[in-house]
Queue: 2 jobs
Job 1
Amino acid sequence: MSRTRFFLSNEFGLVLLIAVFAAIFGLAATGFLSPFNLFTLGRNAAVNIMIGLSMMSVIVTGGLNLAIGAMGVSAAMFAGWLIEGVGVPWPLALAGGLACGAGLGFINGATVVRSGLHSFIITLATMSIFFGVMIFLTRAESYRDLPAVFSDFGRMKFAGYVSPLLLVTLATALVLAWLYRRTVTGREMLAAGAQPGAAELSGIRVGRMVILCHMLSGVLAAMAALMLVARNGAAIPSMAGQLGQDWLLLAFLGPVLGGTLLQGGKVSVLGTVLGAFLVTMLQSGLLMLQIGAFWVQTFLGLMLLIAVLLDKARRAYLARRNLA
Amino acid sequence: MSRISQLSRTDWFGPLLATLLAILVVRGFSETFLSPYNIQILLLAIAVNALIAFSQMVIIAIGQMNLSVGAIGGLAAITFAGAMEVWGLPAPLAVMLALGVGAACGAMNGALIRITGISAFVITLATLSIFKGINLGLTEAQPFYGIPEGVKAFGNATILGIVPLIFVPTLLVSIALWYMLRRLPVGRFILAVGSNEHAAELSGISVTATVVIVHVLSGVIAAIAGILLVARLEIGQPSIGDDWLILSFAAPVIGGAVLAGGHVSVSATLLGVVIVAVITQALVLFSIDPFLVQVVLGAMILAAVGLNRLRAHQPVSGAG
Amino acid sequence: MMTDHPLFEAQGIEKAFPGVRALKGVDITLAGGSIHALLGENGAGKSTLIKIITGVHQPTAGTLRVDGEAVRFAGTRDAIARGIGVVHQERNLFPRFSVAENIHLEQIGASYFKPIDYAELNRKARQWLEPLELDVDPAMPVSELSVAKMQLVEIAKALSLQSRVLLLDEPTASLTASETDRLFAILRRLRDAGTSLLFVSHKLEEVQEICDRVTVLRDGENACDSRAMAGVTRGDLVEMMIGRAESAASGRRRAADGAPEMLGLQKVATELGHRDIDLSVRAGEIVGLYGLVGAGRTELAKAILGKFAITGGETRVAGEAVRIGSVAEAIHRHGIGYVSEDRKSEGLILQHSVLSNAGIPVWRRLAGAMGLLGDGKVRDAVLPYLEKLEVKTPSLAQSAGNLSGGNQQKISVAKWLAAGVRILIVDEPSVGIDIKTKAYLHDLLRDLADGGTAVLIITSDMPEMIALADRIAVMDGYTITGVVGNTGSYPEMSRRIMDLIHGPDAAARTA
């Protein structure tokens, strides 16, 4: 029975899909498995996975965070300003950027808790506010004179093709997995997200947990944006698109493909990592197959649709077999 | 006294006061605010934004959300422009085609939501991406320039030199929606499903049919907004719709719509659009940084949901 | 006036859900011009039977007959079409719609695009409101009506559908005494007009007052099938419901007089409107809090827990005056546990594992440095209690939602045992659990009290109250109207409690 469960698990399905698509792209697209492409793939995956983890940490509460892009870019621009505008050494500026992400997350979380409204409408509004303030303060100008350490880090390769950015992301994912499985705070986040009423009456400070989840999301979004800074060698206000909306689909694809329930209370860190990686690989492979950059978005949308349908079928099957 | 308390309980009274106040304040600071030219600009903005808001409002009425309104509007816009430029279709036929595309997109949303039982949020996030991708795939992000003169003229004509002609379709849609939500069974079903889906089902209402109808309606209204924008901008921009998401939620919410469903108001939503337009216009008139418009819009949404919540907490007099 | 020819019959109805046989061959026969009582304890199968009669569920076996003709209801629509109307316990109205529209929504459905003639609708609605003596403007939104009037609107709605069989599920649960009297007058008139009414209630006084026939379910079977009410005593009904004579359940009174007070409330007022609450629970004592729905009992429990603010008076825990600012504080600092009546949304986290659910209150205490906490530690802490309570689960990793109601309730109690609370508040201990588990739970609560825990029980089930409590505090209108010592005699306790709720004092209070 436990073996059946393993083969029916989301994570196993994702690994299978990744293997299948890697084989297809490797055969059909020349250069897909070249060290350079694997390096770029890993570097892109590092950012995309981080974005997915950022969304996942809020989905835990049964809410969502539309402001991920706006928060990430704001935090990265703040770090850029600390370096160029204030002259702070870069490690401090990084810490400042992460703190900015946590602060913006706190604003989201506290507003959600205090108002009692769904995080959808709150983060829709703060997305507009954060991005607007950031653009207003930066005059939409980039910070391009960053210390070389950023672009060096972005270009660095281990063993020929592993980007250190990917290692940072994987380490973060490990920490998150440990948080949810092995710490009281992580468990309480899950309990508060699954059934706030029951969690509160069992002695969990639900409001505090929701705020913490949003802060975590802010920090992870800041990390994703800072990685983009390392990749681009500059902090650019438009790096997540208008209002940071370009991150939105990516942010949901990872967790949803990975089997994180949108109702909250259950997470799969490994699933999110695999899901976001699969998406990155598909993007890269489709581009190399000359599908046309513009159709990739349609493809990702279809994939989200198919993924949720498959997941639903899988759950229905498990429920019927009484395995879940 | 009781007359006033009665008024204060209608949906549109609060937003109307806010609108008048906003207009008075802006007028107080700016002589030119109510000049015919400015009014025309205001009405132009309202004409399109009201449709965007209605497109979301009908979905809010059943307690769902539609992230794909912008993508549907954009796809309809380029269908309209492309059909005229590439296929040389006459404008009325192109309009029908674009409306058909909007209806089909909406039907797809509604059907997927009902058949799969997956939340509207996830489904419309996926279809947003699909519709936008089709848009970009077809246009390769290049605009259609071949808009017939007649369409351009329609987009820029005015009645009596003040009211833009494209305001007329918006007005007709507003009246039709108001009538539907007040008098037609389908409108009442929409509100009933939004208010209590289980009870609606027990009352013999087909929830599936209602949900699909409302999504088709949302798609058609978004398509009209896209078509009007093409006429006004005089080109078929693939980027039409990219910035609709916040606009679409702002006006209904500022007008007091309850996101949980079952309670929306056409007049209040329209007033919400007017408030947003007046304030946006004021920021321009006072030469305040255009970047701050986003901030103000976001802040207004937060303020409005806060106010709605306060209002909901006040006990209804006469009950119990 | 009662016709011999039955309007509706159900024979040999069986219903199985995964893992549970809710109904094991139940019969019921409803005649026109009759008010028929359907009785049974929680979990006896009442609600399942109602759902089958109204077409929500389809029976696994057995036949339904309307006018002697066998029918199958594929859904609620079929049942409605056959003239079976129902007024559910929860309100199914649209608050913003007018009275007339709520009544006639069904008929409007014929066409999606034909404009509604509201004048005509109001006129038609009056025709259904008049027989119910409901003097309201049909154009008025339902949200402006009182709960009692909303219920009458639902009855009007059911009647407008040409219902000949009308099910009323706990219709008096949220009504005052005078509203109940009015409702009964209307029900009698409907009966005299030939309607067949099925009255579901757990208030035996009401059932005996208004019903002429009775069907009792116990454990998914008929304890009696559609027999005449005449000659049936209250004791007979109770015996049929619980399967034994009532006296056997009489509580023994603990001598806790000398024990220290664990929970004390003096002149307590809350933000929810409680006032002058005096209540005291000693170590080793079980105090019952009795009252009707809406009396403010659950709300008081939550205020004690710190979920709602206490605005006046003094709260004492173990003799010390305290101000409890949050539920977490109540649990972790003061050792107060609360078992909710609403297991699904307030008691358990159904999608999480048994282990996780049983361990929540002890997580903080077990955690090591940096908040580290492994499953092993939690298992060691809670397993003895899960075993002691005989929780039946395939594994500790099983989702709590997959267990039966009785096992879920055991987990809800076990988690507080593991947490070692000094004060345990149990809200409706036997909601949705079978009779065997109920008896077991009762023993457990008595043992718990004997072990020194102060227990406060909230229940609307009088036999349960008498079986468990040492003293019974009666609550009505957000205040405590009196405290009576439990003598174990049902008639006496019942009379004294009802006096405290409906007595002359009560009338003066509500006036």
Note: Chain C has two domains: 6-248, 250-510.
Job 2
Amino acid sequence: MVTTAEPVTKLVEAFNKLPGIGPKSAQRLTYYLLSRPGEEAKALAEAILALKEKTRLCSVCFYITDCDPCRICQDRERDHSKICVVERPSDIPPLERTGKYNGVYHVLHGPISPAQGIGPGELKAKEFLSRLQDGSVTEVILATNPNLEGETTAMYLRRMILPLGIRITRLARGLPFGADLEYADDMTLSQALEDRQEF
Amino acid sequence: MGAPRSYQTQAIIIKQTKLGEVDKILTIYTPEFGKLKAVAKGVCRPGSKLGGNVELLTHSLLMLARGRNLDIVTQSQTIDGFLVLKSDLWRMACGLYVLELIDSFTLENSGNHPLFDLLLDTLQRLCQGDDSETVLRYFELHLLDYLGYRPQLHRCVGCNSPIKPVVNFFSSSQGGILCSHCGQKEPDSRPLSVGALKILRLWQSFDYATARRVKVRSELRSELEQVMPGYIKYLLQREVKSIAWLRELRKESIVDNNCGRN
């Protein structure tokens, strides 16, 4: 016998499909929304709809945007001769929060992952290389993740950019703030030693 | 008395899968237990104590606590990070191919000391700058050997006659060489030159120190590149995913100088 109202079951099922949300959390979220005023639920529903309807990828940098080109690419105050290459759209907000970078970005939408059969053809790598052809770019910052897939991607892009004579930099690797030297791995520690700075 | 709650083992990290926000499921290859899966908690956090010690292509000493479903990595220390390998695009691709083969061919909880040693030696050989194609082919042949798929290279797998020094055939479905007569009747077999067969026999029967001394001509290289991966594809009934990346790098001529290519 079905005892729960159908809209409730439907929403529980929908929440349950989201990453990290199990059946109990889905139920809790549903009953929470049920207890809130109608406007709040409506605002959430509209925000979800707008997410799919009003966003697209920037035709220049492939960041998620509601206007094309995106606000970063349109900004004339930014230094368009520097391009920072990131794996995913979610990598841009933390870089922006630092307030230290005034160039533009390029989102690859993933790293090269040989084990999953993902090569440069599946990423926005060709589009990135074509951005470099007009000669206006003077520096490329490779900000892919410091893991094996990120390194593979960075090394591949470096090979491709090298003949163009553009300065290529990579985000520094070393010990994170709050870390313990004793527990640092060899790769990080050797990199931290090599790239040590005057103090 | 039950099994101890925690245990220590050497391991080579062969695969990582994300689990939630900051955890990862590691697939590791160990000498005593073979392939295992274990959870590395909080490993995606920048300050994680496990961090680079459990990165792919790393030989580490791990302390694991027995969990209900999967064991949990509690401590880790790098034995060899294969840093040389990780700083070269081609060699890293070779390393990833080796890891994928191990992951694809082995079962969990079946220890195989010689296979662990072969894996470790192969990664070290790639680091040392040995001819990468020889290292890979030697690894493939001996991996198949340890797992019971050793290809028959001395007698015809069709009629059992001795192989003559002419162009013969390699049949993946029959697991070895077909003589020139039988090979023509088998549509899926591929021709194999005398030179390529000699090299395969030598790599299969001799130790690595002897195998590495053989200089392989470039036309034989391309032939051998086709034969072994073709056999592996037949055994797995699918393409090894990372081979596409190796082919892409070969196409772009991103191969190292030591492997005899331009």
Note: The first strand of chain A starts at residue 56 and ends at 57.
